[in-house]
Protein backbone atom coordinates (compact mmCIF):
# COMPACT_ATOMS: atom_id res chain seq x y z
CA UNK A 1 0.00 0.00 0.00
CA UNK A 2 1.45 3.34 -1.03
CA UNK A 3 0.36 6.56 0.69
CA UNK A 4 2.97 8.74 -1.03
CA UNK A 5 2.06 11.31 -3.66
CA UNK A 6 4.26 11.25 -6.76
CA UNK A 7 6.67 14.17 -7.34
CA UNK A 8 4.31 15.41 -10.07
CA UNK A 9 1.34 15.35 -7.73
CA UNK A 10 3.27 17.27 -5.07
CA UNK A 11 4.22 19.90 -7.67
CA UNK A 12 0.63 20.12 -8.90
CA UNK A 13 -0.74 20.47 -5.35
CA UNK A 14 1.83 23.12 -4.41
CA UNK A 15 1.16 25.11 -7.58
CA UNK A 16 -2.59 24.99 -6.87
CA UNK A 17 -1.93 26.11 -3.30
CA UNK A 18 0.03 29.16 -4.52
CA UNK A 19 -2.65 29.98 -7.08
CA UNK A 20 -5.42 29.75 -4.48
CA UNK A 21 -3.59 31.74 -1.83
CA UNK A 22 -2.20 34.42 -4.18
CA UNK A 23 -5.06 34.88 -6.65
CA UNK A 24 -8.33 33.46 -5.29
CA UNK A 25 -8.31 34.03 -1.53
CA UNK A 26 -8.77 37.78 -1.36
CA UNK A 27 -11.80 38.00 -3.63
CA UNK A 28 -13.74 35.03 -2.24
CA UNK A 29 -15.86 37.24 0.04
CA UNK A 30 -16.66 39.58 -2.85
CA UNK A 31 -18.15 36.83 -5.07
CA UNK A 32 -20.29 35.71 -2.15
CA UNK A 33 -21.44 39.21 -1.19
CA UNK A 34 -22.29 40.19 -4.77
CA UNK A 35 -23.68 36.74 -5.69
CA UNK A 36 -21.36 36.87 -8.67
CA UNK A 37 -19.75 34.04 -10.64
CA UNK A 38 -15.92 34.39 -10.54
CA UNK A 39 -15.40 34.61 -14.29
CA UNK A 40 -11.76 35.70 -13.91
CA UNK A 41 -11.00 32.63 -11.75
CA UNK A 42 -12.53 30.35 -14.35
CA UNK A 43 -10.37 31.90 -17.08
CA UNK A 44 -7.26 31.47 -14.96
CA UNK A 45 -8.14 27.82 -14.27
CA UNK A 46 -8.67 27.22 -17.98
CA UNK A 47 -5.37 28.92 -18.90
CA UNK A 48 -3.50 26.69 -16.47
CA UNK A 49 -5.16 23.53 -17.82
CA UNK A 50 -6.99 22.79 -14.56
CA UNK A 51 -10.31 22.34 -16.34
CA UNK A 52 -9.03 19.39 -18.35
CA UNK A 53 -7.12 17.63 -15.60
CA UNK A 54 -9.08 14.40 -15.69
CA UNK A 55 -9.97 14.54 -19.38
CA UNK A 56 -8.13 12.11 -21.61
CA UNK A 57 -5.18 13.62 -23.58
CA UNK A 58 -6.81 12.50 -26.87
CA UNK A 59 -9.51 15.10 -26.11
CA UNK A 60 -7.12 17.86 -25.06
CA UNK A 61 -6.96 17.12 -21.34
CA UNK A 62 -4.00 16.01 -19.28
CA UNK A 63 -5.43 12.67 -18.11
CA UNK A 64 -4.08 13.27 -14.62
CA UNK A 65 -6.74 11.20 -12.85
CA UNK A 66 -9.03 11.98 -9.96
CA UNK A 67 -6.48 11.91 -7.13
CA UNK A 68 -4.46 14.63 -8.87
CA UNK A 69 -7.56 16.60 -9.83
CA UNK A 70 -8.87 16.64 -6.29
CA UNK A 71 -5.52 17.65 -4.81
CA UNK A 72 -6.11 20.84 -6.80
CA UNK A 73 -9.76 21.07 -5.73
CA UNK A 74 -8.83 20.68 -2.05
CA UNK A 75 -6.29 23.51 -2.21
CA UNK A 76 -8.80 25.85 -3.84
CA UNK A 77 -11.62 24.86 -1.45
CA UNK A 78 -9.43 25.97 1.47
CA UNK A 79 -10.01 29.55 0.38
CA UNK A 80 -13.09 29.49 -1.88
CA UNK A 81 -15.54 26.61 -2.26
CA UNK A 82 -17.22 28.36 -5.19
CA UNK A 83 -14.04 28.35 -7.31
CA UNK A 84 -13.26 24.77 -6.24
CA UNK A 85 -16.68 23.79 -7.60
CA UNK A 86 -15.69 25.03 -11.05
CA UNK A 87 -12.91 22.42 -11.20
CA UNK A 88 -15.07 19.75 -9.54
CA UNK A 89 -17.93 20.27 -12.00
CA UNK A 90 -15.63 19.57 -14.94
CA UNK A 91 -15.47 16.04 -13.53
CA UNK A 92 -19.18 15.34 -13.37
CA UNK A 93 -21.03 15.65 -16.69
CA UNK A 94 -17.82 15.50 -18.79
CA UNK A 95 -16.91 12.19 -17.15
CA UNK A 96 -20.35 10.80 -18.01
CA UNK A 97 -19.76 11.91 -21.59
CA UNK A 98 -16.21 10.53 -21.65
CA UNK A 99 -17.33 7.16 -20.38
CA UNK A 100 -20.78 6.70 -21.91
CA UNK A 101 -21.45 9.05 -24.83
CA UNK A 102 -21.02 8.03 -28.47
CA UNK A 103 -17.71 8.96 -30.13
CA UNK A 104 -19.10 11.94 -32.06
CA UNK A 105 -20.17 13.65 -28.81
CA UNK A 106 -16.90 12.87 -27.04
CA UNK A 107 -14.87 14.29 -29.91
CA UNK A 108 -16.98 17.42 -30.26
CA UNK A 109 -17.54 18.29 -26.60
CA UNK A 110 -14.61 17.20 -24.44
CA UNK A 111 -11.91 19.40 -26.07
CA UNK A 112 -14.17 22.43 -25.54
CA UNK A 113 -14.71 21.49 -21.88
CA UNK A 114 -10.95 21.10 -21.38
CA UNK A 115 -10.40 24.60 -22.81
CA UNK A 116 -13.05 26.04 -20.49
CA UNK A 117 -15.23 27.00 -23.44
CA UNK A 118 -18.13 24.68 -22.72
CA UNK A 119 -20.10 24.14 -19.52
CA UNK A 120 -22.53 21.27 -19.01
CA UNK A 121 -24.98 21.27 -16.11
CA UNK A 122 -26.58 18.16 -14.61
CA UNK A 123 -30.38 18.30 -14.69
CA UNK A 124 -31.57 15.27 -12.77
CA UNK A 125 -33.46 16.35 -9.64
CA UNK A 126 -37.16 17.15 -10.03
CA UNK A 127 -39.64 18.56 -7.50
CA UNK A 128 -40.98 15.06 -6.67
CA UNK A 129 -37.71 13.19 -7.38
CA UNK A 130 -34.83 14.20 -5.11
CA UNK A 131 -33.23 11.37 -3.16
CA UNK A 132 -35.36 8.99 -5.20
CA UNK A 133 -33.80 9.90 -8.53
CA UNK A 134 -35.62 7.06 -10.28
CA UNK A 135 -38.97 8.83 -9.72
CA UNK A 136 -38.35 11.43 -12.42
CA UNK A 137 -41.25 12.28 -14.75
CA UNK A 138 -39.48 14.21 -17.50
CA UNK A 139 -39.96 12.35 -20.77
CA UNK A 140 -37.96 12.10 -24.00
CA UNK A 141 -40.23 10.95 -26.82
CA UNK A 142 -38.87 9.97 -30.22
CA UNK A 143 -40.20 11.97 -33.18
CA UNK A 144 -38.35 11.18 -36.42
CA UNK A 145 -34.70 12.14 -36.02
CA UNK A 146 -35.47 14.19 -32.87
CA UNK A 147 -36.54 13.66 -29.28
CA UNK A 148 -39.17 15.86 -27.68
CA UNK A 149 -38.50 16.71 -24.01
CA UNK A 150 -41.30 17.55 -21.57
CA UNK A 151 -40.96 18.06 -17.83
CA UNK A 152 -39.40 20.10 -15.06
CA UNK A 153 -36.08 20.10 -13.19
CA UNK A 154 -35.02 21.83 -9.99
CA UNK A 155 -31.71 22.73 -8.29
CA UNK A 156 -29.73 22.59 -11.55
CA UNK A 157 -26.41 24.16 -10.57
CA UNK A 158 -25.08 26.62 -13.17
CA UNK A 159 -28.25 25.95 -15.21
CA UNK A 160 -28.37 29.69 -15.90
CA UNK A 161 -24.97 29.77 -17.60
CA UNK A 162 -24.41 26.23 -18.91
CA UNK A 163 -24.14 25.80 -22.68
CA UNK A 164 -25.67 22.33 -22.42
CA UNK A 165 -27.82 20.55 -19.87
CA UNK A 166 -27.36 16.83 -19.35
CA UNK A 167 -31.01 15.95 -18.80
CA UNK A 168 -32.19 12.75 -17.15
CA UNK A 169 -35.42 11.69 -18.85
CA UNK A 170 -37.69 8.70 -19.33
CA UNK A 171 -37.14 7.28 -22.80
CA UNK A 172 -39.37 4.29 -22.09
CA UNK A 173 -41.90 5.33 -19.45
CA UNK A 174 -43.26 1.79 -19.04
CA UNK A 175 -39.82 0.48 -18.00
CA UNK A 176 -39.51 2.24 -14.64
CA UNK A 177 -35.99 3.23 -13.60
CA UNK A 178 -34.49 1.19 -16.42
CA UNK A 179 -36.27 3.36 -18.96
CA UNK A 180 -34.33 6.45 -17.81
CA UNK A 181 -31.55 7.79 -20.02
CA UNK A 182 -29.63 11.04 -20.54
CA UNK A 183 -29.75 13.56 -23.37
CA UNK A 184 -28.01 16.89 -23.98
CA UNK A 185 -30.19 19.96 -24.41
CA UNK A 186 -28.61 23.17 -25.71
CA UNK A 187 -29.24 26.44 -23.93
CA UNK A 188 -31.85 28.55 -25.70
CA UNK A 189 -33.76 25.70 -27.38
CA UNK A 190 -37.36 26.83 -28.04
CA UNK A 191 -39.64 25.67 -25.21
CA UNK A 192 -36.88 25.67 -22.55
CA UNK A 193 -37.26 28.19 -19.73
CA UNK A 194 -34.68 28.72 -16.95
CA UNK A 195 -35.63 30.28 -13.62
CA UNK A 196 -33.02 31.17 -10.99
CA UNK A 197 -33.73 30.05 -7.41
CA UNK A 198 -33.30 32.88 -4.89
CA UNK A 199 -32.39 32.97 -1.21
CA UNK A 200 -29.50 30.53 -1.15
CA UNK A 201 -27.60 30.05 2.11
CA UNK A 202 -24.03 29.65 0.83
CA UNK A 203 -21.83 29.40 -2.29
CA UNK A 204 -23.84 32.36 -3.48
CA UNK A 205 -21.82 32.99 -6.64
CA UNK A 206 -23.26 29.77 -8.08
CA UNK A 207 -26.92 29.66 -9.10
CA UNK A 208 -29.27 26.74 -8.81
CA UNK A 209 -32.16 26.87 -11.29
CA UNK A 210 -35.46 25.41 -12.27
CA UNK A 211 -35.64 24.25 -15.88
CA UNK A 212 -39.01 23.96 -17.62
CA UNK A 213 -39.22 21.85 -20.78
CA UNK A 214 -42.30 22.35 -22.96
CA UNK A 215 -42.07 20.25 -26.13
CA UNK A 216 -38.34 20.96 -26.51
CA UNK A 217 -37.06 19.34 -29.71
CA UNK A 218 -33.51 17.97 -29.60
CA UNK A 219 -31.65 16.02 -32.32
CA UNK A 220 -31.43 12.29 -31.61
CA UNK A 221 -27.64 12.70 -31.96
CA UNK A 222 -27.69 14.41 -28.54
CA UNK A 223 -28.53 11.19 -26.72
CA UNK A 224 -25.79 10.19 -24.27
CA UNK A 225 -27.36 7.04 -22.81
CA UNK A 226 -30.67 5.53 -23.79
CA UNK A 227 -33.08 3.87 -21.42
CA UNK A 228 -34.50 0.45 -22.25
CA UNK A 229 -35.47 -1.09 -24.54
CA UNK A 230 -32.77 0.40 -26.77
CA UNK A 231 -29.94 0.17 -24.21
CA UNK A 232 -30.19 -1.92 -21.07
CA UNK A 233 -27.53 0.05 -19.16
CA UNK A 234 -29.31 3.38 -19.70
CA UNK A 235 -29.87 4.40 -16.10
CA UNK A 236 -27.26 2.35 -14.32
CA UNK A 237 -24.25 3.25 -16.44
CA UNK A 238 -23.89 6.96 -15.54
CA UNK A 239 -24.46 6.15 -11.87
CA UNK A 240 -20.97 4.64 -11.65
CA UNK A 241 -19.53 8.05 -12.43
CA UNK A 242 -21.09 9.42 -9.27
CA UNK A 243 -18.71 7.28 -7.21
CA UNK A 244 -16.00 9.76 -8.08
CA UNK A 245 -18.32 12.75 -7.87
CA UNK A 246 -19.56 12.10 -4.39
CA UNK A 247 -16.02 11.62 -3.08
CA UNK A 248 -15.30 14.93 -4.80
CA UNK A 249 -17.94 16.52 -2.58
CA UNK A 250 -16.05 15.03 0.36
CA UNK A 251 -12.76 16.53 -0.83
CA UNK A 252 -14.34 19.96 -1.22
CA UNK A 253 -15.62 19.67 2.36
CA UNK A 254 -12.17 18.56 3.48
CA UNK A 255 -10.62 21.63 1.85
CA UNK A 256 -13.03 24.00 3.60
CA UNK A 257 -12.38 22.28 6.94
CA UNK A 258 -8.61 22.44 6.45
CA UNK A 259 -8.82 26.13 5.50
CA UNK A 260 -10.93 26.94 8.58
CA UNK A 261 -8.57 24.91 10.77
CA UNK A 262 -5.52 26.84 9.57
CA UNK A 263 -7.23 30.18 10.19
CA UNK A 264 -8.19 29.11 13.73
CA UNK A 265 -4.69 27.78 14.43
CA UNK A 266 -3.05 31.06 13.38
CA UNK A 267 -5.51 33.16 15.39
CA UNK A 268 -5.06 31.04 18.51
CA UNK A 269 -1.33 31.69 18.43
CA UNK A 270 -1.85 35.46 18.76
CA UNK A 271 -5.16 36.03 20.61
CA UNK A 272 -4.77 36.38 24.40
CA UNK A 273 -7.38 36.19 27.15
CA UNK A 274 -6.78 35.78 30.89
CA UNK A 275 -3.07 36.52 30.27
CA UNK A 276 -2.70 33.44 28.06
CA UNK A 277 -2.70 32.76 24.35
CA UNK A 278 -5.71 30.68 23.22
CA UNK A 279 -3.29 28.03 21.97
CA UNK A 280 -2.08 27.56 25.55
CA UNK A 281 -5.53 26.65 26.89
CA UNK A 282 -5.85 22.91 27.16
CA UNK A 283 -9.58 22.70 26.42
CA UNK A 284 -9.02 24.50 23.12
CA UNK A 285 -5.85 22.55 22.31
CA UNK A 286 -7.82 19.31 22.61
CA UNK A 287 -10.57 20.69 20.40
CA UNK A 288 -7.93 21.39 17.76
CA UNK A 289 -6.38 17.94 18.23
CA UNK A 290 -9.80 16.31 17.83
CA UNK A 291 -10.41 18.33 14.68
CA UNK A 292 -7.10 17.30 13.17
CA UNK A 293 -7.89 13.64 13.88
CA UNK A 294 -11.18 14.01 11.99
CA UNK A 295 -9.62 15.93 9.11
CA UNK A 296 -6.87 13.37 8.59
CA UNK A 297 -9.38 10.49 8.76
CA UNK A 298 -11.46 12.18 6.05
CA UNK A 299 -8.37 12.79 3.92
CA UNK A 300 -7.37 9.10 4.07
CA UNK A 301 -10.89 7.93 3.18
CA UNK A 302 -11.38 10.36 0.33
CA UNK A 303 -8.05 9.78 -1.40
CA UNK A 304 -8.28 6.01 -0.95
CA UNK A 305 -11.73 6.06 -2.57
CA UNK A 306 -10.44 8.27 -5.42
CA UNK A 307 -7.35 6.09 -5.93
CA UNK A 308 -9.67 3.10 -6.38
CA UNK A 309 -11.70 5.00 -9.00
CA UNK A 310 -8.44 5.90 -10.78
CA UNK A 311 -7.40 2.25 -10.65
CA UNK A 312 -10.66 1.25 -12.36
CA UNK A 313 -11.94 -0.47 -9.21
CA UNK A 314 -14.44 2.01 -7.74
CA UNK A 315 -15.83 0.96 -4.37
CA UNK A 316 -19.34 2.47 -4.05
CA UNK A 317 -19.56 1.72 -0.33
CA UNK A 318 -16.20 3.38 0.39
CA UNK A 319 -17.20 6.36 -1.79
CA UNK A 320 -20.33 6.81 0.32
CA UNK A 321 -18.39 6.38 3.58
CA UNK A 322 -15.85 8.99 2.46
CA UNK A 323 -18.58 11.44 1.43
CA UNK A 324 -20.48 11.13 4.71
CA UNK A 325 -17.42 11.27 6.93
CA UNK A 326 -15.81 14.25 5.18
CA UNK A 327 -18.95 16.37 4.73
CA UNK A 328 -20.31 15.79 8.24
CA UNK A 329 -16.83 16.35 9.69
CA UNK A 330 -16.46 19.63 7.80
CA UNK A 331 -19.72 21.01 9.18
CA UNK A 332 -18.59 20.35 12.74
CA UNK A 333 -15.03 21.51 12.19
CA UNK A 334 -15.88 24.80 10.48
CA UNK A 335 -18.32 25.68 13.27
CA UNK A 336 -15.78 24.82 15.96
CA UNK A 337 -13.13 26.88 14.19
CA UNK A 338 -15.63 29.74 14.07
CA UNK A 339 -15.98 29.33 17.84
CA UNK A 340 -12.25 30.00 18.27
CA UNK A 341 -12.80 33.53 16.93
CA UNK A 342 -15.48 34.31 19.53
CA UNK A 343 -17.74 37.18 18.45
CA UNK A 344 -15.47 38.12 15.53
CA UNK A 345 -16.16 34.77 13.87
CA UNK A 346 -19.87 35.55 13.72
CA UNK A 347 -19.32 38.48 11.35
CA UNK A 348 -18.74 38.40 7.61
CA UNK A 349 -15.50 40.37 7.87
CA UNK A 350 -13.80 37.03 8.54
CA UNK A 351 -14.06 34.04 6.15
CA UNK A 352 -15.38 31.72 8.88
CA UNK A 353 -18.94 33.01 8.60
CA UNK A 354 -18.92 32.27 4.84
CA UNK A 355 -17.22 28.90 5.26
CA UNK A 356 -19.87 27.71 7.74
CA UNK A 357 -22.63 28.67 5.28
CA UNK A 358 -20.83 27.29 2.22
CA UNK A 359 -20.01 23.87 3.56
CA UNK A 360 -23.62 23.19 4.57
CA UNK A 361 -24.65 22.22 1.04
CA UNK A 362 -22.24 19.30 0.85
CA UNK A 363 -24.20 16.94 3.12
CA UNK A 364 -27.22 17.46 0.82
CA UNK A 365 -26.10 17.60 -2.76
CA UNK A 366 -24.51 14.62 -4.49
CA UNK A 367 -26.69 12.29 -2.37
CA UNK A 368 -27.69 13.25 1.18
CA UNK A 369 -25.99 11.79 4.24
CA UNK A 370 -29.08 9.67 4.88
CA UNK A 371 -29.21 8.19 1.38
CA UNK A 372 -25.48 7.45 1.56
CA UNK A 373 -26.10 5.62 4.84
CA UNK A 374 -28.81 3.60 3.08
CA UNK A 375 -26.23 2.58 0.47
CA UNK A 376 -23.73 1.67 3.19
CA UNK A 377 -26.40 -0.34 5.04
CA UNK A 378 -27.24 -2.18 1.80
CA UNK A 379 -23.58 -3.09 1.59
CA UNK A 380 -23.75 -4.48 5.14
CA UNK A 381 -27.06 -6.34 4.86
CA UNK A 382 -27.56 -6.77 1.13
CA UNK A 383 -31.02 -5.53 0.13
CA UNK A 384 -32.70 -7.23 3.10
CA UNK A 385 -34.70 -4.61 5.00
CA UNK A 386 -34.86 -2.12 2.11
CA UNK A 387 -37.79 -1.46 -0.21
CA UNK A 388 -35.49 -0.94 -3.19
C1 LIG B 1 -26.80 23.58 -3.51
C2 LIG B 1 -27.41 22.43 -4.24
C3 LIG B 1 -26.97 22.11 -5.51
C4 LIG B 1 -27.57 21.07 -6.23
N1 LIG B 1 -27.17 20.83 -7.51
C5 LIG B 1 -27.84 19.90 -8.25
C6 LIG B 1 -27.55 19.73 -9.65
O1 LIG B 1 -26.65 20.39 -10.20
N2 LIG B 1 -28.29 18.85 -10.36
C7 LIG B 1 -29.28 18.10 -9.79
O2 LIG B 1 -29.89 17.31 -10.50
N3 LIG B 1 -29.58 18.22 -8.48
C8 LIG B 1 -28.90 19.11 -7.70
N4 LIG B 1 -29.21 19.29 -6.36
C9 LIG B 1 -30.29 18.49 -5.79
C10 LIG B 1 -29.83 17.49 -4.75
O3 LIG B 1 -29.19 16.40 -5.37
C11 LIG B 1 -31.07 17.10 -3.92
O4 LIG B 1 -31.42 18.23 -3.15
C12 LIG B 1 -30.83 15.89 -3.06
O5 LIG B 1 -30.67 14.75 -3.83
C13 LIG B 1 -31.97 15.68 -2.07
O6 LIG B 1 -33.21 15.72 -2.70
P1 LIG B 1 -34.38 16.66 -2.11
O7 LIG B 1 -33.81 18.01 -1.90
O8 LIG B 1 -35.57 16.51 -2.96
O9 LIG B 1 -34.68 16.07 -0.64
P2 LIG B 1 -35.58 14.78 -0.31
O10 LIG B 1 -35.20 13.64 -1.19
O11 LIG B 1 -37.00 15.18 -0.27
O12 LIG B 1 -35.10 14.45 1.17
C14 LIG B 1 -35.56 15.17 2.32
C15 LIG B 1 -34.90 14.56 3.56
O13 LIG B 1 -35.30 13.18 3.69
C16 LIG B 1 -34.14 12.35 3.72
N5 LIG B 1 -34.45 11.09 3.03
C17 LIG B 1 -34.98 10.94 1.78
N6 LIG B 1 -35.10 9.64 1.48
C18 LIG B 1 -34.68 8.95 2.58
C19 LIG B 1 -34.58 7.57 2.89
N7 LIG B 1 -34.93 6.61 2.02
N8 LIG B 1 -34.09 7.23 4.12
C20 LIG B 1 -33.70 8.19 5.00
N9 LIG B 1 -33.77 9.51 4.76
C21 LIG B 1 -34.25 9.88 3.56
C22 LIG B 1 -33.05 13.13 3.01
O14 LIG B 1 -31.75 12.73 3.43
C23 LIG B 1 -33.37 14.56 3.45
O15 LIG B 1 -32.81 14.78 4.72
C24 LIG B 1 -28.61 20.30 -5.62
C25 LIG B 1 -29.02 20.60 -4.32
C26 LIG B 1 -28.44 21.65 -3.64
C27 LIG B 1 -28.91 21.96 -2.25
**Structural shape:** globular
Rounded to the nearest angstrom, the radius of gyration is 21 Å
The count of β-strands is 10
How would you state the average pLDDT, rounded? Answer: 94
CATH fold call of the largest domain: Butyryl-CoA Dehydrogenase, subunit A, domain 3
Structure summary:
By secondary structure, the chain is an alpha+beta fold. The chain has 3 domains: 108 residues, Acyl-CoA dehydrogenase/oxidase, N-terminal domain (Butyryl-Coa Dehydrogenase, subunit A, domain 1, Orthogonal Bundle); 112 residues, Butyryl-CoA Dehydrogenase, subunit A, domain 2, CATH 2.40.110.10; 142 residues, Butyryl-CoA Dehydrogenase, subunit A, domain 3 (Up-down Bundle), CATH 1.20.140. The chain is built from 13 helices and 10 strands.
Layout of secondary structure:
Blueprint: H1 7-24, H2 28-34, H3 39-47, H4 65-77, H5 81-89, H6 93-100, H7 103-114, E1 120-123, E2 139-143, E3 146-157, E4 164-170, E5 180-186, E6 192-196, E7 208-219, E8 223-225, H8 236-239, H9 241-268, E9 272-273, E10 276-277, H10 282-310, H11 316-340, H12 351-359, H13 369-381
Helix pairs in contact: 1-4, 4-5, 4-9, 4-10, 5-9, 9-10, 9-11, 9-12, 10-11, 11-12, 11-13
Q: How would you describe what is shown here?
A:
The protein has helices at residues 7-24, 28-34, 39-47, 65-77, 81-89, 93-100, 103-114, 236-239, 241-268, 282-310, 316-340, 351-359, 369-381, and strands at residues 120-123, 139-143, 146-157, 164-170, 180-186, 192-196, 208-219, 223-225, 272-273, 276-277. It has 388 residues and is of the alpha+beta class. The protein has three domains: 7-114, Acyl-CoA dehydrogenase/oxidase, N-terminal domain (Butyryl-Coa Dehydrogenase, subunit A, domain 1, Orthogonal Bundle), CATH 1.10.540.10; 120-231, Beta Barrel (Butyryl-CoA Dehydrogenase, subunit A, domain 2), CATH 2.40.110; 240-381, Butyryl-CoA Dehydrogenase, subunit A, domain 3 (Up-down Bundle). Strands 1-4-5-8 form a four-stranded mixed beta sheet, with helices on one face. Strands 2-3-7-6 form a four-stranded antiparallel beta sheet, with no helix packed on it. Helix 11 runs antiparallel to helix 13 (369-381). Flavin-adenine dinucleotide binds next to strand 1, strand 3 and helix 13.
